[in-house]
Amino acid sequence: AIGVREEGGTVTAVRDSTGTPVALEAGARLAGVVTDSTTGRPLAGAQVYLVNTPHFAVTDAGGAYAIEGLPDGRYALSFASPRLDSLRWVPEPDTVEVARSAPTVRDLAIPPLARVLTAACAADSAAPAGSARLAGFVATDSAAQPLPGAEVVLEWTGEGGARRTLSAEADFRGVYRFCAAPPGVPLTLKVAAAGAAGSVSDLRLEAGRPAQQDLAVPRRVARASAYTDAADGKTHVLLKVVDAETRRPLSGAVVRLGSSAGRRTDSEGNLTLVNVRLGTYTVTVSHADRGDRTVEVDIDRVGGVQLELRVPPGQAVALAPIVATSRPMPRELAQALEERRRSGARRFIVTRDMMDRIATGAPHVETVLRAHVPGIHVEEVYYPGTKILWFIRIYYRRKRVDVYVDGRRASGEEVARLSPHVVQWMEFLPSQLANSRGYFNNLGGEAILLLYIMTPPPSVD
What we know:
10% of the residues lie in helices and 41% in strands.
């Protein structure tokens, strides 16, 4: 060799392909397991995150997570999962301290179902101190179908032998709730729905300890008569569809016996099914102004009367036909996607394509949000005594979210009536970033929801 040349240097900074600095020394490590106490299984696919930081991890099939490279300090730890959305429960952030000297282990869990179902009682200021909490599901005993609107009554004997009662109505999931039940006394729980009743006796509650008691209502089986026509020798079944309140016949209702093709009722609400075997069937009735109704029907040769299928009153919402067309990406959406790529901020953009994938089962904007934004919670408020959506409130990390539609702040009533089919895209972003763009959260929340309708959408230059 002619000579030796030695080169050296000191690494002062490392950046990734986007220009983000990479730590030169290992940070603290936070790990643990997330479980679902309502099912007794690990919670896979949950997003575990440190509040107001970019640090997060997703749990594996065993519910385990690990967040690496953390600066020493104290953090608020929380998690999000579609399971939380289905339970309508938002966890309180857990304070945790981490240090490089040793790994920190912190397990997280969805609490038992009794606590989840009674969580809303925390906001009930009318509940006397020392009250007991009780909640549960109301469903049919055979098919476990929820019974929304079922009236649940709690009875007990008060001072002086007086009979005392509390009543509650099951929500759209079939969940009922009592936040001010008396502790330590024998209680009777009753429910009436779908023409049947169920009850639980000698129920005792403890103050400060949430309790769960589900109620099963026997599934009523209707009876229809069949006869053999002398002319064709085939079995005939007579059906009649009527309104549950007015008892007037419903024409044009589509009736399906089991998996058979649907048949429409005539002007008098009547329908005759031919060549039907005797036995028990699931009969589904669909009506444009009443929705769907399903009932078990036992068809035999006893009785000699026709079956009346009573359909509850309701309101139909007419949607305009949806026409799928190909068009350029709006300039504002392209800019938002590029800004998200460059900033790396915790934000979500839901495009038209993403919404179309769940459009069949997404009649409201909040349904799309739950599907695409982890940790979001939507509170739905219905008109008293009806199943008609009145307004919605959107929460993120327990704080209210302000909604803007094409740059204008929208009310909860407006958002509740907004179909996702007219929305071009949605942008869910932190309040700090939204403020820099001229949007402000007047409710003091951590995020802003921007909806873009823009009809017709702007073209790309």
